[in-house]
Design a protein that fits this description.
The protein is an alpha+beta fold and about 230 residues long. It contains 5 helices and 5 strands, in the order H-E-E-E-E-H-H-H-E-H. The mean pLDDT is about 85.
Length: about 230
């Protein structure tokens, strides 16, 4: 059976891993990754398309010069993308976050196992926890980088806004605001770092105690040496 200290430390790491897993699910499921105001114009009018969307779906509504407002419309992100680069990047982000989800799940399993038992295999111990938490954090960071690239370089918001218009118009300017579904990924990274720090503190203390117990007898105090 594991010691009380080990149980507490790995149980704490397990909680952070479970929170990380839940937040990856939230990031994938919610559509508040991006809110954009995209302005278009032609010879007769100006139109502003307001978008809120995530990785799978979103909503858009139009505001036309003069106060006319077109009712909100729901759209599917993948279905409204004609650009290969934008669609490929969105697909890559989804795949990467699924890998992050699996890594977080495995990390939760490893920490739970160590909280209630002493695994024989080395990889099932701290090394496995380090590995899966690191992978989860790296995958999440890559997703955080790819999404803004898709917005700025591939014109994701502009392309989605164009599909909400009945006729093609000229793009004037765009204003973007990242939503909570995007910033949640920063918290996921911090949670994975916290898990690694917790296990490292336990592992370092255990190693130090082991080295102390293996201290050569010549380094022991003279009053405890028996002849």
């Amino acid at each position: 059976m594991p010691t009380r200290k080990k149980t507490v430390m790995f149980a704490s790491a397990f909680l952070t891993c479970v929170c990380s897993f839940a937040l990856v699910c939230v990031a994938l499921a919610t559509q508040h990754w991006m809110s954009s105001e995209v302005r278009f114009s032609d010879a007769n009018s100006n139109v502003t398309v307001s978008l809120t969307y995530g990785l799978f779906s979103g909503t858009c509504e139009q505001f036309i010069t003069g106060g006319l407002q077109v009712p909100e419309k729901v759209f599917q992100v993948a279905d409204n993308l004609s650009s290969t680069e934008a669609k490929s990047t969105i697909t890559a982000i989804i795949v990467i976050l699924v890998l992050s989800l699996l890594s977080s799940l495995l990390s939760s399993g490893f920490t739970c196992t160590n909280a209630v038992s002493n695994p024989y295999q080395t990889f099932l111990g701290p090394i496995g926890v380090y590995t899966w938490n690191s992978l989860c954090g790296i995958f999440t960071l890559i997703a955080m980088i790819l999404f803004p690239v898709n917005i700025e370089e591939n014109g994701l918001s502009v392309e989605l806004a164009l599909t909400c218009l009945p006729i093609q118009q000229t793009h004037d300017k765009s204003v973007h605001s990242y939503g909570y579904s995007y910033w949640i990924m920063l918290l996921i990274i911090f949670l994975n770092i916290a898990s690694i720090i917790i296990i490292y503190c336990y592992d370092h203390a255990r190693y130090s105690k082991k080295k102390e117990q293996e201290r050569p007898i010549e380094n022991a105090p003279k009053d405890v040496i028996l002849f």
